[in-house]
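Reader question, answered in our methods column.
A reader sent in the components of a multi-part assembly and asked whether the whole thing could be modeled at once rather than chain by chain. We filled in our standard form and ran it. Here is what they sent:
COMPLEX SIZE: two components
ENTRIES:
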Amino acid sequence: MATVTAAPFSQVDTRRASGRPLGEVNPLIYLVLIIVGIASLIPFVWMVLTSVKDYGDVVSLRFWPWPPLGNSTPRFDNFAEAIRLIGVDRDTGLPMFFRHVLNTAAVTAIVIASSVTTSVLAAYAFAQLEFPAKNALFILVLATFMIPEELILVPRAVMMNKNYLNWYNTLPAMVAPFLANAFGIFLIRQFFLQIPRDLYDAARIDGAGHMRYLTLVMIPLARPAILTLALLEFIWTWNEFRWIQLVTSSSNMRTVSVGLVGFLQTDGGAQTQLAMAVAVMVVLPVVVLYFFTQRYFTEGITTTGLKG
Amino acid sequence: MVTAENVHPEPGWRLGKAREALLAYALLAPALLLFIAFTFFPIGFGLYISLHNWRLGPREFLGLGNYIRALSLNSEFWPSLGATLTYSLLAVPLQISIALTLAYLLFQKIRGKSLFRVVMFLPWVTSTVATAAVWARLYSPDIGLINGVLKNLGLTPLRWLLEDKGVFTLIARGLGVALPDWLRGPSLAMVAVVIYTTWVFVGYNMTLFLAGLGNIPGEMYEAAKIDGANGWQLFRHITWPLLSPTTFFVVLITVIGTLKAFNHIWVMTQGDNGTQTASILIYRQFYEFQRAGYASALAFLLSAVILVVTIVQNRVAAERVNY
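And here is the structure of the entire assembly that came back:
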């Protein structure tokens, strides 16, 4: 199985010989890479440090106000304070921030389940079956890549209002545009195409039809690609802002990203340490997930190369 | 399940084909129906909306009225298109050149390669809303880290995202020269947004370049080295031409991405201080003023620009790229 699953992703193997032995690398290269690495991390470090500063240390611009450089103590209360200022959800009695987390989790779970399912089914048809208009339909799927989101943003949102679908400010409206995506179909199709045809012939001799072959052979083999798709859907949905902002009106229907932007515009959000405390809570799940699964992200992106 | 064609190849063949096609359509149906409902239908619906004065529903038919308004001389569409193109022209070369340089450096046999990659890719993974909020505070004139560093270095602090003056005007003023208005250049706020964008996307583009570099056969370098090529010659005559499909692809998606940029600009400036790009204008017209018809017309115009840019890039690529 290892050889089959590794094949589509082999192009990411950057260890292939560039023809230079280790000893020749210029130390300046390390210097440049380290500087860029620090520049990539500094905003995150500043965000985390600021989230536990008191207001005085924020205003005085002290990067590290704690011992040994200063005598402040880290204020972990900022997180509780920020959550308190975001308010309480009257429906559930929960702090509104937790309601936002639950909404985000619900939207993300629905989007992942739906887009993975629709992608796997469609990818199987494109990779394994022969049928009339196959190429035309595949081009139709790829065409959805080329359509700028701006073009369909307004009509999609109009469709949600009370004269049409009447989904405004409900979960169906929040997830509708993300339930299927061409990226997923393309990614999984690429993977399915790498699986040797002989496997299907063997399965058929054993009496398996297409659906059993798909569920018992193809899906288990394609697990890395499916996981890649699920992870990318996770970060895209977790980070989605514009659509959710457009089709929701009440705070208790919003997600963490929309909630963060709303909080920034309040008096509480004007206090930088509280704004950063919320930002930390929004970013944290994604960062943790990324560090454990980062291999799949780069593989998914370099396999299909799409979606900036 | 034994299919018919195993037993009777001749008559069963057609039945098998028909069943296979039916199964295929059934498997494609969920995705295709969703695309039709939420992608293809909205294009036609958007066209219809754009021909009307539209609030919650159609008020009156305007024909091309919204387009004429958008294209009239004093419309806000032209400045927004200018801001969009300025953003693109600043961000694309900066992102691509840094990403390619970093990919080339990382492609050498160095230690800690994957750690560098993971760290540089991180900004792309995290929520643009959250990181843009962080950068907006880093740029803060009073309490931002960036002005703090400038002050410590004895330099003049700047107003960054709050500055609508052009960067050339500011530089000239620093040198004691007054520039005519048409030479003002992009606003400092725009440049600040571009710096943020570079921070977000360099790791992503670098990852694509690294994959492209990995596809160049190592023997090419060996052969060239035997012929006595030096480092620059290797890059100029082997890496650059063989990498051109990747470069073209990265440039294409970066250009399209910059033409559509929205989230971070919205969070950092809401489109103020010379950063009202076309996608910000569309969103404002719809979200703040409920002008669905006008916003749809603007969206069609922006999409036409994106389409033209894509076609031009493809033409250029057909001449220049070595496949």
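What stands out: Chain A has two domains: 24-74, 76-304. The CA atoms of residues 158 and 201 of chain A lie 49 Å apart.
Send us your own complexes using the same form.
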